Amino acid sequence: MEETISLKEIYETLKKRLGLIISITLLAVAASAIISYFMLTPRYETTTQVLVSEAATASSILDSASFGSDSEYIDTYNVILQSPYILDQVEEELGLENTPEINVQREGDSQVVNISVEDTNPARATDIANATAGIFEQEMPNLLNVDNIYVLASADLGEQPTPVSPNPPLNMAIAFVVGLMTAVGLAFLLEFLDQSLRNEQDVEDTLGLPILGSVSVIDEETPEVKTSKSEVANTELSRSNRKGRESA
Questions:
Q1: 85, 49 contact by CB (below 8 A)
Q2: H or E segment at 133?
Q3: By CB count within 10 A, which of 27, 87, 107, 224 is most buried?
Q4: This prediction's pTM
Q5: CA 170, CA 210: separation in Å to the nearest integer?
Q6: 248 in any annotated domain
Q7: Where are the stretches annotated Disordered (predicted)?
């Protein structure tokens, strides 16, 4: 038998399970806040910019015959920046325990390359970015016999570094939406699994038969009141009869 759900039934279900919905939503937001603020380790990102000038792009190895466009030699520089040849020297210079991970990205269609480093320590991230740019600038004449690398902007630690992750407000907003959707879904699931018959309409929908009658709820105080009144009436009638016999 096909069932339809009216807007009134949806409203009644949400109203009935409102406490559950609010509780689950607040619990999800609170859990997200605790995890974001107290359990996840903040990570900081710093960036330095390197300019690859055109002065030497047509000389030595980087000539027009070797590279067909600007993007080709810049892509080559990007690969060199992330190679062990550069990163091993950065690790040795800073005394790092592990090889640093850097992100190299070209700034649009320009000849500027951004070197980004993400780390749990903002000072260490700044040192890695600046050391990578400095070693790259120093080693390029030895690698490709060119001297066209210039550091435009060094990474700056700043007075109050702001972590890039986690983002507690964003995480809490996502938790709110997910928690609310989960709570509403759970409310409708519980309502669907509840097979109890609560009124005449539920009986009619379940049996598929019309309701001919129903048993009303009897107030417990009503019979006592009626009984008391009848007892008073009987007492008064007995007194009247007794007086009549005495008079006769």
A1: no
A2: helix 122-144
A3: 87
A4: 0.65
A5: 54
A6: no
A7: 222-248
Other CB atoms within 10 Å distance of the CB of residue 27: 13
| Average pLDDT per 10 consecutive residues for the chain, totaling 248 residues | 67 91 96 95 93 59 48 81 93 91 88 92 94 92 81 87 91 97 94 73 67 66 51 57 58
CB 11 within 8 A of CB 89: no
Q: Find the helix packing angle between 84-94 and 70-81, rounded to 10°.
A: 40
Q: How many structural domains comprise the chain?
A: 2
pLDDT of residue 67: 47
Give the residue carrying structure tokens 């339809």. 4
Q: Do both 91 and 149 map to the same domain?
A: yes
The neighbouring-strand residues paired with 120 are: none
Contact 13, 192 (CB under 8 A): no
